[in-house]
Structure formats: C-alpha cells, structure tokens
Amino acid sequence: MKIFKKSALSLCVQASIIASVTGFSTSALAAEETTRAKVVGVEVIEVTARKRTENVKDVPISVSALTSKKLEVLGSSGMDVRSLSAKVPSLLIESSFGRTFPRFYIRGLGNTDFDLLASQPVSLIYDDVVLENALTKGMPMFDLERVEVLRGPQGTLFGRNTTAGIIKVQSKKPTQDFDATVSASYGSYNSTDLRLAVGGGLTDTLSARVAFLQQDRDDWIDNKAPGFEQDDQLGGYGETAGRIQLLWEPSDNFSALFNYHFRDADADARVFRANIIKPGTNDLVDDFDREVVYHDAASRNNQTIEMNGSSLKLDYDFGSHTITSVTGYESAEMFSVGDIDGGYGCGITAIPGCDPANMGPGFIPFTSETGAKMPDHSQITQELRLSSNDLGKFDYQVGFFYFNEDLTINNLSFDTLGGGNQNGIAVQNMETTAWAVFASMDFELSDKLNLTAGIRYSDDERVWDGTLVQSPFGAPGFSENATVDDSQVSGDVSVNYRMTDETNLYARVAKGYRAPSIQGRSLLFSASHTTADSELVTSIETGFKSTMLENTARIDGSVFYYVVDDQQLTAVGGTGNVASLLNADKAVGYGFELDSEIWATEDLVFGASLSYNHTELQDDTISVAGCGGGCTITDPINSDGQVIIDGNSLPQSPEWIGNLSARWTKEIGNGELYIYTDWSYRSEVSFFLYESKEFMGDAITEGGLRVGYEWFAGDAEYEVAVFSRNILDEEKLTGAIDFNNLTGYTNEPRFFGVEFKANFF
C-alpha cells in the first residue's frame, strides 16, 4: 500500500501559496504583543440543535457539544470519527470497514448492517447537509467549530432516519478577521498528521477559509501464514481531505456561503483475525498478538475512497423574517476488499510450506474473500426555510426539504485459493427520493415557561433492482426488483421552565420515523433480497440543565423512555456471509444521562459524564440463524433450529457509557504548562441479535494523556505536546464474524506521539 508522505508536505506548501495569492487581509494584526486574559469558569456553548443559534442550556433536548479544542485532542493520534465514541453520554461508534462506513448508536439504537445500502437511525449532518449513505458519514473531521450530539428522535426539523438522534458537525466558517493554524504530529507506526487552515477577508464583502488534512500511517501488522509471510503487510493508511469556503456578504441582510470539500483515501480494510476468541468465553486467546495475522489474502486487503461535495447556503434577512436556502451535492466512489475469514486455507488445498496438522490460529474451514465497489453515487439535497426573528412571545419556522440519492453497488467475491481471481458479482442499483414539509412553533407562555411544538410530513420512495451476474458457486444468474414507499407524520412537543437564572427544567415528547429499507447483498450468494417496513419511535424524556457555584460548575441530566414499533433489524452472518432485513414487533429502551464540568480551582477543571441504557426486543415470534463458526449460543432454539431473540438487548448497545477528564495548568513564563487526561468506558455489548458466550464484547476502558506547553509571542500562539491514546494498551474485541470460526477484530493499539501547533491572528 502506498503512503503519501511527500504529498503531505506539498499540501502544506500549496495551502500556503493559496493563502498568499488570494490576499487574505492581515490588517487586524497588531505589531505589539497581545495580552490574553485567562478564561476561568464554565464556557457558554451555543448550538444550532433547533436550526437557530441558542445557548445549549435553553434547548429542551438532551444534547452534548464537543468544542474544537477537545476535538483536536481526540483526533491527535490520526483517529477518525470513531474517536467520539463514548466521549459523550449514550454514544457508541464502531465499524467493520475500518476508517470508513462508521455505524452510530445513540441510546442503544443503531444498525449493524455492513451493506452499502444500509439505513441508519442516526443521521449525520455535516455543515447543514445530511450525509445519508454510511460511506459518506466517514468524512474526516478537521478544522471544526464543534460537534453536537442530539439524543432522541428529531422528527420535526431533521425528519427521516433520525429515530435515535443526530450527529451535527460544524466546520469553522470564514470571517473578515485573519487567522491561520498549522499543526504537525508524529507518532507510533510512523504515523503523521498534518493540518493547515487559513482564513480572512479577501475584500470588504468576501471572506474565505481553506483547510487541509493529511494523515498517514505505515503498515505495522506482520503476516505469518506459511507461504504468505511478509513483515509489515497490513494496518496502514494514507488520507487527504480538504475544504474551501467562500462567504459573500454584500449587505447586512444577505449572505451566501459556498462550501467545497473532498476526501481521497488509500488504506487497508478492516483486519479480521481467525480463531482469536477462547471457546466458551469472550476472552482473547492466550497467545494473541495484535501485530500478527495469519492471512492467505492479506495482499488484497485494501480500500480506496474518493468523495467530493459542495453546498450553497443563502440567508436573506428582511427584518421580521429570514429566508434560508441550503443546496447540497455529494458524490462518492469506493472499492474495498477484505480477507473476511481472517485466516488461511491450507487445510482446504495444498499450499507450499504449510502443514495442515500445524496451521496455528489461521485455520479456517473455508475461505471467504469478498468486497464491494461503489462506482457511481450521487446525492442532491435542498432545504428552503422561513424563520421568524424575535416577533415577541411567538416565533416559528416553516420549511420544505427534498432528497434524492442514486447509487450503484457491485458486491464481489474472489477465489482466494485461485490467486484472488474474481469469481462472483452481483449488481445493485437504487434510487431514493424523499420530500417533506415541516413547521415548528415557539410560544413564550410566561417569563419562565416556553412551549415548543413541531410537526413534519415525510414521503419516501426507494426503487431497487439487482442482478446476480456471476455466482461464486456456479449457480445460474437471476434478476429482481423492488419498490418500497411510505409517508409518515412525525413531530415533537416540549416545555422549558426557567426555575432560576442558573437552572432550566424541560420535558419533551417526540415521534421519529425511519424510512423503509432494502437489502440486496444476498444476491451474490443466490438468495433473494429482503425489505423492512418503516419503524416508528415514540420517546418521552425530562431533564435539567444547570450552572452553579458562581459559574464554576455545570451539570445536565435527563431520563428517558422510548418505544420502537416495527423495529428494523439486520440479521448478519449466521451460517454464511450474508445479511437480511426483518422487523421486530417492538423494542423498548429507558435510561438516564448525566454530563458535568467542574472548575475545582482556576488551574484545575474536571469533566464527567455517565449514561445508562436498557434496551429490549419484544417479539415472541422472531428468530434468526445462529452462528456457523462454533460459538456457544445462550438463547433458546426453536424447532426449526433458529435462535429465539425475544427479550435480548439490541446489538452494540452497552448499558453503561462513562467518561472522565481532567486538565491542570500552571503559568510558566509567557505561557502555560498543562496536563490533560481523559478516560472512557463502555460496558459489555452483544455483537449480534442472538447472544452467545464468544460474541459478547467485554467492557472496554481506554485512557488518553497529553502534556504540553502553550505560549504567546506577538500575534501568534504556539503549542508543543506529547500524548498517548489507549495508554494502558487495552486489547478487546469490538466486533466479530460468526459464520467462519471464531473470527473477530479489535480496538486500536496504544499510540504515542508528539505534536507542534501554531495559531496566527
């Protein structure tokens, strides 16, 4: 795999040239050294959870916000969006693809489906544009203002496929003030992370911001399969991403923001490992070595991604109202192939140098090398919104939303024992068209009490066709087609009571809607497609948001209960490398969330969050296929040999998620020494709809440590730091393959690094 170290350097040079050629205004720079006062106390965080800029304390929704400073710390080891997992209450993120195709879970609701047509109940909104396909949700996070996590159904303002909640990502926007940032880090496995951003005024009415990211890591996993030995064959990546934004403000009441962004990645796909689980337990085998695999197809375990997108946001303020238009276009191409069985097959056929009687952990009963290609993908979105501007005791928003996605997927199979020649292909085409109208109203009932009510009508249609072109087993080809459609009404009602100037109480009832789904990957293995009807979620929650002790402490809390009707589920694996959709009659969930920040002194601040989520499937008729890889199933089996899953928790749904952080600072000279540490915890999870001893992921505790020095010189701020992620080197399963031996994959290894950063104002 190629690692683009040289391109990282050229990227910084190019960005610097762009900054100088375009002539960013530096008139705001002062010649003398700037004195910056130290800020002590809880920061006022503004969010756009209701498509208005508001103090997070005034929003009657369970929401957490991660600011740019914390996001930079979490991503300093080259991590992707998965670095947010367990950093706020009730949020889990995992992936069986590696650095792309993240799967989000909020309050236990998510989708374990790994097909590129998969529908998720957590929506990701990046710079006001919804990213529907799970592949596009892997867009790197860089030069960000904040990330907001909205928990619970968001059926009024955001609509479809938000039954669990929303991840809302906001990048830094252009302003007339000049600023520039450059950071570079180096760490374990020859990892490099280079970031550059520069922004400012080009003219009195035109501002720009340019941001780039380059991340690289060398291969670090050795392949020791006899006949396929190679050191440092897997585990590396090279990734480039960029964003250019132009903000035109010809008058006080009109603005136009243009955004172009791209991603180009060349990486190894997820590394699967055969026979790494002790039978009858969920422990890793005694001789497990994270830096070793036994693969017969490791040389082809690769992944390439290209993404491009643009958006145009127009705002016109005519006094009492503002009209907003957001137009977005996204496109993506992807190819990914993996050694899914995680081993090598010298027990199946003769391989030079391999003794079938002594195959070690790589033994597999049959090979499985599959992949997916997305040669064509496009998404168009349009939102038009009319918002009132402080009319008094009544404000409202009304709007229209349109969505269209068209994509082609090639599901592929390869003959591992025949040198990796392609021996199977199924082609899927799907077009999704959706539209909605919505309205949200805010009433000030008194000086202390506010009421919000919203409603949305959504209409969805998915048109799909699929063809088995070539079967890996020689079966005849065939074609199928399907259409699923539905229309639903969703919405919410909430009240917000200002008990004191420091404490707000709220209650909320919300209904969410997840559109019907189609899954056709099974065509590759001569099985028909499956569909799932719409799922509906009704949620009730109440909570409080409070600052105290003269603004040196903040604590937010919520309790919730929800019911999912016709819960969409994906039965993955079983006895084959397939996935199928089904609906459960009902699922219920309940729990609580706490999020806090405490300034013990002006030099020491603590953060703590905790959530409890109980989920339960309730359908006494539902059953799925059990594992084909020798696991110990703990659920009852019916007369057809299927596993009864009634009463189980939802997959990848931990009961407990917690996070602790602390930052200590000490002024030294013209700067500040700091020590920062953060620790996240998630309790055990089941990887599949059925429960078994082996495929129950153990609890994980991961810690980070960062020690650095920040100082000012003139109109610049500098920082040097050393850091570590997963500092205790926890080795735990985070997912598994259940159709071929006890195959799984693990969390990221311990990482050490050093970083330099400079900010210019």
UniProtKB/TrEMBL annotation:
Q: Identify the stretch annotated as signal peptide in this record.
A: 1-30
Record domain TonB-dependent receptor plug: where: 56-166
**Membrane topology per the record?**
Multi-pass membrane protein
GO BP annotation list: iron ion transport
Q: Which GO terms describe its cellular component?
A: cell outer membrane
Q: Which UniProt keywords apply?
A: Cell outer membrane, Ion transport, Iron, Iron transport, Membrane, Receptor, Signal, TonB box, Transmembrane, Transmembrane beta strand, Transport
Keyword field contains Ion transport: yes
Query: Taking every annotated instance into account, which residue ranges of this chain make up the domain TonB-dependent receptor-like beta-barrel?
Result: 297-683
UniProt keyword annotation of Transport present: yes
Concerning Pfam families, the annotation shows:
Plug, TonB_dep_Rec_b-barrel
Compartment list: Cell outer membrane
Please name the SUPFAM superfamilies in this protein's record. Answer: Porins
Family from the record:
Belongs to the TonB-dependent receptor family.
- Please state what the protein is called: TonB-dependent receptor
Source organism per entry reads Colwellia demingiae
Source taxonomy lineage?
Bacteria, Pseudomonadati, Pseudomonadota, Gammaproteobacteria, Alteromonadales
